[in-house]
Amino acid sequence: MLQTHYQILRPLTTAHLAQTMTLLSLTAEELHQTIESELASNPALELVEERRCPTCSRLLPPRGNCPICSRPQGTTVDEPIVFVSPREDFYTGSGISKEDFPEDNYSTTTEDLPTYVLRQVATELDPADRRIAAYLLTHLDEDGFLTITVMEVARFHHVLPSGVEAIIRLIQRADPIGVGSSSPQEALLVQLEILAETRPVPPLAEQAIRTSMDLLSRHQYVDLARSLKISVRQAQEIARFISENLNPFPGRSHWGDQRQPAAAATQVYHHPDILITHLNESSDNRLVVEIIMPLAGTLRINPLFRQSIRQASEEKIGAWKSDLERASLFVKCIQQRNHTMQRLMQRLVILQQDFILHGEADLKPLTRAQIAGELEVHESTISRAVSNKAVQLPNGRIVPMSMFFDRSLNVRTALRTIIEAESSPLSDTELASLLAKQGYVVARRTVAKYRAMEGILPAHLRHNRSTVVA
DNA sequence: CTATGGCACGGATT
DNA sequence: AATCCGTGCCATAG
């Protein structure tokens, strides 16, 4: 049980439990902020000097030797190396992502997004407006969307909302076109508008984005056609045009193209919380799993503080003591979090090894409860540990950690490959029986749902392989 | 009559 | 306790 681990560290308290749970559910990025604010507000806590491995010069975990260099570099893949990896460099800057890490093939620019955009628009603005532009650009999220409203900015800078809007329009037309929008929808509209200046676009594309954004993003072509009062074929063409030429997340890479370059249709992930790579980047080596710890050094209780508490005056001693306790609790909880994450990943990587190495088709159906049972922790612990987290796979893809627990992904990929290989369109019933032959027994109705999820049209609308691009 | 989507139910999962 | 997911049944389109 969970208690066992607590008892190793310290007697169990409710505060202890509550805080560990909270920390467990935090993203590495959120953890970074939490630690910073705790560090700033609690004098008893200190960050000690970073340690680097003398041979490979990577930042070392709080205790012990370098997990990479000190281990035998055997070729066995079945035992992954799992460790907590301090990577403070991930989260420097004012909440804005820089380029992430060497093998990140998602980042397109070497300087950070705000600077990049600001340089483009700066020349067209006078100094006062430039300040507003800079302000706006520091409030972008990883996808390139504004996290504040026009009114807030206007009030903050004492200017008219219309003035702010004009600046936003300028920003939107800068390189990652659509950056600085407030929603994917708005970003698409801006991109469409600009595209229309140089190239003919499907006439109803704008209306489709404006009125049926949700249908569009869920690939509901049939419904889309109905709402626009056009044929399904046309709807499909519009959707295709949009997904090929526009990008709903201007700050990041592309959207739902069914083929090669990854990127799940629904969500684009930003910073990974966990890195899975091959040792020495050679694919027959064992796996290395790094659990990101957004810190440069080690967190501990300041020994000086502990000493000086003895000579503290009467009235201060209470407050100091509580600081001390808070700090100690915090450190323990962080350790607890790391420990849990480490155990989870250790097991998870072994169980889903085939998926990690060979892709979605080899994903094993797995539930959180199952892992919880094996690790002898409560189900909710695993739930917390998995939710909102992103994992970077050896091939560079960043996927939500919940994908490791997707019950139907392997069936859906099987379905996709069958349909890709089909010579004439197969009906859902036929598909269902073909899947059953491969060992995936699902109801006909379910096949239909999976088709929809994958954005594949029903059989009678499917025949033509290549569609015309406007 | 066949293929498919909608609605809703029940069991599993979180 | 709330939510998600697979499925069955039924209506509708072709």
**N- to C-terminal separation?**
60 Å
> How does the overall form come out from the CA principal axes?
globular
- Tell me the total number of β-strands: 7
Main beta sheet: strand number and arrangement?
5 strands, mixed
Summing up helix and strand content along with how strands pair, one would put the structural category as: alpha/beta
Pattern of helices and strands: HHHEEHHHHHHHHEEEHHHHHEEHHH
Number of helices: 19
Average of pLDDT: 76
Task: Bin the helical content.
Answer: 40-55%
Strand order of the biggest β-sheet: 2-4-3-6-7
| Computed Rg | 26 Å
Low-confidence stretches: 1-11, 91-110, 253-269, 465-470
Q: How large a portion of the residues is in β-strands, by DSSP E? A: 5-15%
Short descriptors:
470 residues; alpha/beta; 5-stranded mixed beta sheet; 7 strands; two-stranded antiparallel ribbon; DNA-binding; single chain; disordered N terminus; disordered C terminus
Describe what this molecule looks like in 3D.
By secondary structure, this protein is of the alpha/beta class. It is 48% helix and 7% strand. The strands form two sheets. It has a five-stranded mixed β-sheet with strand order 2-4-3-6-7. The protein has a two-stranded antiparallel ribbon with strand order 1-5. Strand 6 (390-392) and strand 7 (398-400) form a beta hairpin. Helix 10 packs across helix 11 and helix 18 (428-437) crosses helix 19 (444-454). The N and C termini lie far apart (60 Å). The model is unreliable at 1-11, 91-110, 253-269 and 465-470 (pLDDT under 50). The chain binds a DNA duplex (14 and 14 nucleotides) through helix 16 and helix 19.
